[in-house]
Amino acid sequence: MQRSWEIETSQRILLECGCGERLVLLGREDDWYAEGRSTFECECGEELTLADRVEQGLSVAELLRGPAFLDGR
Fold first, then answer.
1. pLDDT tens digits for 25-42?
2. Which whole number is the average pLDDT over 47-51?
3. 63 part of a folded domain
4. I need a labelling partner for 41 at 20 to 30 A (CA). Which of 29, 35, 47, 70 fits?
């Protein structure tokens, strides 16, 4: 059996924390507001909002960078 790691989404939102960690939200901004979600928590504990969005167009390798990925976790 072959597994697929592809997910179709209508949009991708990328938030970046001051600590350098990035959070990828799948879906449209309106969908997150409709779900009542306007804040998100970084692993460092900092609260992120949709105002913390960074420009998209980053590659998968750039999105996966960071200590947790490099350590193989």
1. 888 888 888 988 989 999
2. 91
3. yes
4. 70
